[in-house]
Amino acid sequence: MKAYLADRYGGLEVMRLGELPEPVAGKGEVVVAVIATSINPIDWKLRAGMLRFLPGARFPRAFGTEFSGVIHELGPGVQGWAVGDPVYGISVTALGRQGSHAERVAVPASALRRKPEALSHDDAATLTVAALTALNGLRLCGDLAGKSVLVNGATGGVGHFAVQIAKAKGARVTAVCSAANAPFARELGADAVLDYRVDDVTKRDDKFDVVFDAHGHLGFGVACRVLATRGCYVTPLGEPRVLLRSLVQNLFGRRKLLIGNVRSEPQDYAEIEGLVASGAVHPHIAREFSLDQAHEAFALQEKGGVPGKVVVRVTPGRRERRVSGLDT
Length: 328
Ligand SMILES: NC(=O)c1ccc[n+]([C@@H]2O[C@H](COP(=O)([O-])OP(=O)(O)OC[C@H]3O[C@@H](n4cnc5c(N)ncnc54)[C@H](OP(=O)(O)O)[C@@H]3O)[C@@H](O)[C@H]2O)c1
Fold this sequence. Notes:
It is a single chain. It contains nine helices and 16 strands. Helix 4 (157-168) links the parallel strand 9 and strand 10. By secondary structure, the protein is α/β, with parallel strands linked by helices. The protein has helices at 41-47, 121-124, 127-139, 157-168, 182-188, 220-223, 240-252, 266-278, 294-303; strands spanning 2-6, 15-19, 29-38, 61-62, 66-74, 86-90, 104-108, 112-114, 148-152, 172-177, 192-195, 208-213, 227-235, 256-259, 285-290, 309-313. It folds into two domains: 2-126 and 283-313, Quinone Oxidoreductase, Chain A, domain 1 (Alpha-Beta Complex); 130-259, 3-Layer(aba) Sandwich (Rossmann fold). It is globular.
């Protein structure tokens, strides 16, 4: 089958369109025919060798952690699903599994969610990683009604969902993004917008109840300068030293250091689907590419500046929804 794959660890230069053996559904697994998939920073972090010390990785290797499609094959022991069912979900590639930047992907049946009819495959392919990370990270902060939330990296994959979810939960949101994406941040509902190249958010007098660091590089110590006394700092980058610090901080400190990871329980899917169905959250697809154009898609996403998500449409077909223009 056709896949966009890496031949070894490295930069974009190690990636190419090629062929991988057909995936086989093992016990408790299904093979999904991928219709749409998206690109996340984890894809190029893995390609760069971030988790190369973990066993299991073999090359050539396709990345891609989220997808939407239809069930192609059921493995032994799988119940409750049928070939042809529309699904979306997560393919955990960190341990070397082949990912969803391919025509088909094998995943445990437990990693699937039935796709609501009203949710397009393109939108569904953006939800599992970025939206569920934003949802989970903000949930850890408790009731957001009337609270002030600073979202750092507010217009990227995670950030653009965080702004919309925080607004939907009644928060006042200050978005930190590049100047070029400031109009987009306002469209998302941000009450105030700061340019990270001009405004040093940590030198402001304002205090925030929540600092949601979608970019992930502000750091707890620095964020504390603008964090209210009982405020929460959330990062999606749970590196070991951050994890260790959070354990100590959350035991003894008044401000909380929280790690917001993807959480994909049925109730998480139900909540994000509800927010999307109500119109409170809108997955923003900046550009859509075919699998043949995946190299271009990666180059754009890695360059930065993308408002929202980049989708790779694996199964050619009618574009399901309008996507915004983005100069490349
Ligand atoms: N733990 C988890 O489960 C999990 C899940 C998802 C993501 N993550 C991690 O979360 C991070 C963000 O993911 P993403 O998908 O949102 O990435 P992304 O789409 O590339 O977005 C990154 C955002 O950060 C902004 N940014 C760049 N430099 C900045 C700076 N100096 N200050 C403030 N903002 C800055 C970018 O703005 P411009 O593009 O306008 O410059 C962009 O909006 C990544 O490190 C990713 O690996 C973790």
